[in-house]
Amino acid sequence: MPDQIALMKAMFTAAVKQALPEHGVAANMPSQPKGRTIVIGAGKASAAMARVFEQKWKGPLEGLVVTRYGHVVPCERIEIVEAAHPVPDAAGTRAAERILQMVQGLSEDDLVVALISGGGSALLSLAVDGVTAEEKRAVNKALLASGAPIAEMNCVRKHLSRIKGGRLAAAAFPAQVHTLVISDVPGDDLAAVASGPTVADASTFAEARAIIAKYGIEVPPSVTAHLAAAKNETPKTLANTKSICIASPQQSLEAAATVAKQAGYIPIILGDAIEGEAREVGIVMAGIAMQARRFNQPVKPPCAMISGGETTVTVKGKGAGGRNVEYLLSLALKLAGAENIFGLAGDTDGIDGARDVAGAFITPDTLQKARDMGLDPWQFLANNDAHNFFEKLGTQIITGPTLTNVNDFRVVLVG
Amino acid sequence: MPDQIALMKAMFTAAVKQALPEHGVAANMPSQPKGRTIVIGAGKASAAMARVFEQKWKGPLEGLVVTRYGHVVPCERIEIVEAAHPVPDAAGTRAAERILQMVQGLSEDDLVVALISGGGSALLSLAVDGVTAEEKRAVNKALLASGAPIAEMNCVRKHLSRIKGGRLAAAAFPAQVHTLVISDVPGDDLAAVASGPTVADASTFAEARAIIAKYGIEVPPSVTAHLAAAKNETPKTLANTKSICIASPQQSLEAAATVAKQAGYIPIILGDAIEGEAREVGIVMAGIAMQARRFNQPVKPPCAMISGGETTVTVKGKGAGGRNVEYLLSLALKLAGAENIFGLAGDTDGIDGARDVAGAFITPDTLQKARDMGLDPWQFLANNDAHNFFEKLGTQIITGPTLTNVNDFRVVLVG
Q1: What is the value of pTM for the model shown?
Q2: A242 plus A298 within the same structural domain
Q3: Do B168 and B69 reside in the same domain of the chain?
Q4: Which of B149, B284, B290 sits opposite A284 (nearest CB)?
Q5: Which of A230, B63, B186, B317 has the fewest CB atoms within 10 Å, i.e. is most exposed?
């Protein structure tokens, strides 16, 4: 039995390792320019990316990267500033203004390196003239409540920003812009990660207005006026830019799949962007695992069912929970001790919700062990208290903050 | 585009057809006995099974079958009575008493044919002496609230019943007992469908007591006393009995898979017992479908992702909904118009929740069509009003009651 646990841990480790900046930044360094090198960036993993970059970079450089409070990695040559996420604050706005200024007035001999990761959209928030930060935030809130798909929300955001939707790269013209991205968005659309400050944007002011109308979103008059004026469209093409996705959920799942395969398990990747309420995703995954057990479908065991993406937790209890451990506890309850089925779930950033715990694992005797200890698994689930449940069982996965993020990693092993 | 719709409809039709009694009863008729033939049965599909049986049966027969109110199929030689489901009523208890009496005093030359289908547990409810029907119902309610797996709930039920857990077959001894089952339970355990009145039961009084203790279930003193006395254990082996599963969720999914394969789609069966909140299952299935589109995983399109089982709906709105249409509307919203992905979901019994509608289908332009008509899909979902949504779009699946039930059928076609 320890074999399965060791395998699942090795798969998680491989998934996280694949997502670390060390790997992807070093492998995708730009050529030395004739002129200046300016490193900018925004996102939860961007300080860690900056550190790798400055260690590998032989020439001179200057730079400014904004990351989330607590995600600082000390750098020697690149300035790191902290700002608020997910709701922008003044520190983020100041950083965005400085970054926009830094990339202006460059020549074609200069190089801008953009280090972009999830969370960068909030950290690099800069409203267009005539619209206040508060008004922009109100529009954002209304968009989130509208049910509009992320692509449509981004279209509106990009048309209210001085930096998003490729505007930062346009400002840097004619300098070369080399963008490295750690993706945390479904579909890995590089124009979507941090709202793509250095990536060309196909959407238009007319579309932004249509989206506002379609969802009946109430916006301040300043926003209506700005979208109607339709001045300064987002760049549809960007010369001298190159964007590389150095880490993504799918790449991490593939790395874990390779580990499973080497151990004799058929890997089956169900999705790199599985969403939904965590406990319900656990129930569905239990159903799929049981199908493999009973009917050798979709594949014959031994197999490893792998998935990524971000589930959600509707908090009703007062416990210490996270989406990975809540998913996992629900999975265990639905499997009800089914023989030879094991599971692990963890957040690749090392922090699953409420605690500095990445996730946990389950074995066929998880529920029995809990009940032998006098614990009621249903009660822990009802109280959103899965971290305490797995702490008592001694089956937590603790990595510490990994300073990268390609969302969640889940595996169900069917032996 | 109509091709995909036609294919999905053909798959659903094949799934339902596979589950009809015509198919399985006729193929599994017992041999003519020397003595009497007594047909008994219980379940939502059991009257329809009885009709096929009496049409095919050459010899004399007598019999009594209990079905749910509204599920009567007129029979000429077998008496059909109606009773309440899911909460038992006096009509069910009377029918159970009569059925138990009918199978007693038989010889080994006699044949008892048991026609069992989902819902039979409530329809064939008969408490042991000393425990009232109300007390048994209270225990059942507490079991449902305990979170105990179905196998453990059945263990307790079988030890409080005069008919469940093989007791009916034991009463018929030494007659031959030929049981035909339409399964609606995850795992197709024939001892679980209608709590297995003619199937040997491995569970014990001691286990029933342990389950009561494990979940801290409060039971009336009469129940405690009966379980402690442990008189009349369920039969662990049953001579002269034969049980055949003539229809199951998996068999229906396989039938649909064959149709998909013939049309050039790779069928992939994800589970015959997928459960969870309907709208969340829709989100997960959208994630799996997108994985096929983007990464050719778990299989390369064109593929048909097939699943069965019963999802649940937590009703918060006041609309007309059902678990299949709610799943489907949520799937459409999560897919957000993704190209070349189609879906259909329907209840194989022809009635998806609130209406005489089996289900519905979606196409890539479902949301756009709805918005063009001025409908807000999110609002229909929030109001649990998916039947009205699909009625307005004209994409309902209407079969009328099929008088069989192997739970839900869902397919997502990825082209």
Answers
A1: 0.92
A2: no
A3: yes
A4: B284
A5: A230
